[in-house]
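Continuing the series of single-chain predictions for the mutant panel. This is the parent chain; the variants come on the following pages.
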Amino acid sequence: MEDETEDETKEQSSEQQTFEDLGVSRALRASIEALGWEVPTPIQIKSIPTALSGTDLVGIAQTGTGKTGAFMLPSLERIEMGKGLQVLVLCPTRELAQQVCDDTEALAKGTRVRAASIYGGVGYDPQLTALKEGFEVITATPGRFLDHLGRGRVDLKNVRTFVLDEADRMLDMGFRPQIEGVLRELPRTRQTMLFSATMPHGVHDLASRITKDAVWVEAAPSGTKAEGITELVYSVKPEMKPDLLLHLLESPEWEQVLIFTRTKAGADALKARLDREGIRTEALHSNLRMANRTKALERFAQKKVRVLVATDIAQRGLDVEGISHVVNYDVPKDPEDYTHRIGRTARAGAIGTAVTFLAAADLGAFKSLTYHIGRDLERIHLPDFDYAGTPQAVSGASPTRGRHSRSPTGMGSRDADDLTDEELADLLKY
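Parent structure:
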């Protein structure tokens, strides 16, 4: 009983820690209060004291857990004004680089620290100005930053802190050569922090190689969902997905909705359908110009549109307050993507709902998903849309001559590609 009481006391003590307890200065605490951050998140509690000491750090945490604050707050504390670029953060996507930059500017408000983002698809002039004037914080994608570095436009001699954010995603996107190119030019004496939602072998190897005597912290195991997310799965015929979505959007509770589609063409087609139905919608994918992507994000964040239809470009780094629902219009092929997608809702202690549309052809991927995340997901069957409710073909058709089906539904040994989604669903019951 004494041990239990002591554990409870420790847990309560951890929950009640403040940013002041973690060593964050008064100036930054004022910015934190302005942002509405009331208490530090678990990853911030575990990371900030270590990072403030200058020790290398490897953080494992899911999206939406406050990772940016975990590495940027201590990085800002260690900046010495007048020494130019001192904090370099590499991110896998333009959207994440811009988001981290925006968060940095908000945290540094009231100080003289300047931050800029560097990525492709936009003009060079603002980036050249930031590099020439020695902005203290740069957030960048690897390709464009290496381009500037190769042209002799970047002074790295005073970089004190180097951060790899979403390292697993960066390796997935093939950025290892660019990362290695930047690492070769960085000062040997520096603090290195690496944050990742997952820790596959490649990321583990990279983290071990580029850090020295690093402290490893973890906020939640891989596949863990953020608190406050309700997960629902709707069985649906593929051709009925748009109608099911429109049916669900009739609810006033579906206030701000982020929908993930598997393809860019699918995102455009769904946007067009929703537009025709009078639902204010924007699309977000890599075929759009950066200016259009930025505009789409801004309109969604400002609630000028109700729905944002996106590909997985938005599954990480998109930090928009008030997303009530996330919809997996298609079951993610990679189970890890599911966690990142649904992490766009219920951020910073809020609540939200994650909905997945499940067609018969996706049953295999869905089984893999539930196995990977280690939990069952509630299934909802609406008769007007559910593939399982489709009547079987009328009996009495001519039997196949000289051959008898081994299946109760008479499908025999037909190729799976020749089966309808309903027939496949029925077959998988046996």
